[in-house]
Specification:
317 residues; L-2-Hydroxyisocaproate Dehydrogenase, Chain A, domain 2; 3-stranded antiparallel β-sheet
Length: 317
Amino acid sequence: MAKVAIVGATGKVGQYAALSISRIPYIHEIQLHGRPGSEGILEGIARDINDSFAATGTDSHVSWTCSFDDLTGADVIIFTAGVPRRPDQTRNDLAFENAKIVRDFSIKISNVAPDSLILMITNPVDIMTHVALKYSGKKPNEVFGIGTHLDSMRLKSAIAAFFHVHVSEVHTRIIGEHGNSMVPLWSATTIGGIQISNLPSFAQVPIDEIMEQVKCSGQRIIASKGATVWGPGEAISTLVRTILGDEDRILTVSAYIKAEIHDIGDVCIGVPARMNRSGVYPVPIRIEPLEVRNFQMSVEKIRRLTKEVFTTLENGE
């Protein structure tokens, strides 16, 4: 049985993630963590979710705390704290503000929960994953971010809708930045086990339109209802289930890579990774030349921004 902690649990994503995670059978405790002053909200969230367990038959417990010391014993710490994105902002606009929060919390996590895995949700997630990796002092396989997992889900849904097939028949991935330079792997996309390019109707797929839809999905949801909640919440739950279930599934998350994809690396970015109880392990792959070039550009963009963030943190700005 495992303990999962959510840092920044008063936010909408943290709240829904807690509810979704509670359905995972081998979790005995979900701990909600918030800043001092949020005690009343945290208690209300915990009571509300615990009340639902009588109907679902869930054998788990939701606790709450404002103390980092209580994170001791957590198997997975989900980090959702940070400044939320406004409709007129890109994820990268948040980098310098959120980096300070992630740095300070990562140092504390390394002291009270040295054996935990860190799952980063805070945006820009690729950069924040690298900040958490550096300042927590953990091994690369012990720190990962939601990355392009949600983007891949969105692409999967769009492809299923176009071909009028069940979403489970579609297998596809987006790698690179969780942002505008993301790279769809059409070379690795299949429908019913058939390479998508071998389907005659592939020529009619509005690729640019679909990718624009995927890239702008989060921003459009934020503009419409204030925040993305259900998609990220279920994506987080899937990652936690995969890790704690020791499933060895390959999902596309933000992880530190060295040279697994065409010798491109030294950055945290969205890549296929094998996931189990001990963490995440990027899978070496070979992709089409155009995909390589686009991935290289995405990596260079994130590497540059990460370097700028580290410089700012080190200078105390």
